[in-house]
Amino acid sequence: MISSSDLKKKYIKFFQKRGHKLIQSASLIPENDPSVLFTTAGMHPLVPFLLGEPHPLGKRLCNVQKCLRTDDIEDVGDAWHLTFFEMLGNWSLGDYFKDEAIKMSFEFLTRELSIPKERFSITCFEGDKDVPRDDEVASTWERLGVDKNRIHFLPKGDNWWGPAGRTGPCGPDTEMFYHVNDLQEKSTEEFSRLCKDQVFCEIWNDVLMQYNKIAEGKFENLTQKNIDTGMGLERTVAILNGFSNVYECDTVAPIIDKVVSMSPGKTDRANRDARIITDHMRAAVMILGDDKGVVPSNVDQGYILRRLIRRSIRHAKILGINGSFCKEVAEVVVEAMGESYQEVRRNSKRVFEELDNEEKRFSTTLENGTKHLERELQFLGEAGQKTLDAKGAFDLFQSFGFPLEITVEMCREKGFSVDETGFGKLMREHQELSRRGAEQKFKGGLADNSEATTKLHTATHLLNQALRAVVDTSICQMGSNITPERLRFDFNYDRKLTDDQIKKIEDWVNNVIKAEADVSFEIMSVDAAKKVGAQGVFEERYEQTVKVYTIAKGGTIYSREICGGPHVKNTRELHSFKIIKQEAVAAGIRRIKAVVI
Ligand code: SER
């Protein structure tokens, strides 16, 4: 039996031995990335470095990253898809490329994990008008001993990764699939069918990141060629132990067992409802337990969290679990995940309270909403219609708090469809969430390094310091999100800022802009960063060296902060700074939105 923690140790040791430095898992809530709500892959926090910024730890990195993806939410309940999962990754930032990356993947799988090569099928990019077919990659696999007949060429939809957003680093990839019960070679058609049937399971993806997709849709060569790999921890643990699904993995099994034990009827680990509850509660606890303090709401990350919790509650009702159950399941999640992610233990009180509150809020409306929908569907059926219109779905959201998936699922069970596109439009209009649509937010994306966002990155450092200088020295950053239009900054403070404080903060920042201070960075040890008083998260940092940005003029240091960049060269580039909004986001956490003009 190989446990999750055994596999993590093996992976990290293997890559450390090959010159990779271990970096810590970033938060599930991305810093300064306007285009994603959650960290969906280990590469997200590394975007500036993939685009060419030097990383303080060098050109070879590895880690275990907590990830959340909701674009596959409909598939949850099958053998292999999870919304929250852990990703093992190794990166070359302009160092080794295809050949060496593939050799290392092969060696890790076949020597370290002792998987026979007959278990694998490999996919490579078949080429298109922009980029040629990847014969080079296929021949590397063949040289290593993979039979030619186990190597399949597939189009962009399958063998191209990124950019997760509209623009950013991307490239063809080569993926490693494991066949759960067969050693026979397959034709490409049969292979594709068996992937859909979940007989093949993708366990690792090596992205050969050599292009930057720019706004006009063109692919430019990146200044450096990178390798970005991601191996699914739960899937790999499952296949190594001969399991046929991820619910048997040691960080998932105790949770589904708890759900099964709470169900009054006869059920087991194969039950789809039990699997959905397990997956969604695990994800919800990891979001709530993150140090960034996200709570259920109707916008952004809070809305996704709400959807996960509410969908769990509905499936619990289907299983006949009555009364509150979230906290009891969450306790098992904290137990299963707390060893690797201490923050979940630290924040467990908040996790339980928020789950209890959300469960109370939704349970009261679930029953009434269900009755309302059943009546609506009866009317529609009598009128010979088969689609619930957008307004009907939106009313359910507004009056009963039904997230779209719940409405879609309930309609599907009764043979109706929902105008989901129309719902998305109403949702966007109603929430004014942002320029990106609500549905877009379920997809990944990458930060842009445009001039506008670069300026706002620097303004964020100044705002962070101004809050301490003007309001309270114990203030620190709880979250940050930057779009080309504005910065958004969350910090620990329990009161509304007065008009006078707002004005003083703006003046503080504008004075530094007027002072024409230089912005520079230095790579230094964590100890040195602490000694020079750099702001940043020091706890649980594995890195021995960090990048510290300083904003200073003639011996006066205005700000010093650990950060990946990028930043402007001189504060004069910001012209002027203005706060446009302040609000509360959670107990003890406030949010400021600001612009540079
Ligand atoms: N970014 C790639 C993926 O998510 C490799 O990690 O599959």
* Strand residue content: 15-25%
Number of helices: 19
Q: Report the biggest beta sheet as strand number plus sense, adding barrel if it closes.
A: 9 strands, mixed
Overall morphology: globular
Q: What number of domains? A: 3
And the CATH topology of the largest domain?
Answer: BirA Bifunctional Protein, domain 2
Tell me the structural class.
alpha+beta
CATH architecture of the largest domain: 2-Layer Sandwich
Average pLDDT, to the nearest integer?
90
CATH class of the largest domain equals Alpha Beta
Approximately how much helix is present in the residues?
25-40%
Provide the CATH superfamily of the largest domain: Bira Bifunctional Protein, Domain 2
C-alpha end-to-end distance = 59 Å
Heterogens: serine
* Cα Rg: 25 Å
| Uncertain ranges | 433-447
Task: Give the tally of β-strands.
Answer: 18
General description of the model:
By secondary structure, this protein is of the alpha+beta class. 40% of the residues lie in helices and 22% in strands. The protein folds into 3 domains: 4-247, Bira Bifunctional Protein, Domain 2 (BirA Bifunctional Protein, domain 2, 2-Layer Sandwich), CATH 3.30.930.10; 252-440, no CATH class; 450-596, Threonyl-trna Synthetase, Chain A, domain 2 (Threonyl-tRNA Synthetase, Chain A, domain 2). It contains 19 helices and 18 strands. The strands form 4 sheets. Strands 1, 2, 3, 4, 5, 6, 7, 8 and 9 form a 9-stranded mixed β-sheet that branches. α3 packs parallel to α4 (135-144), α10 (300-319) crosses α13 (348-382) and α14 crosses α16. Mean pLDDT is 90; it is low at 433-447. The protein binds serine. Residues 41-43, 89, 161, 205, 207, 228-230 line the site of serine (SER).
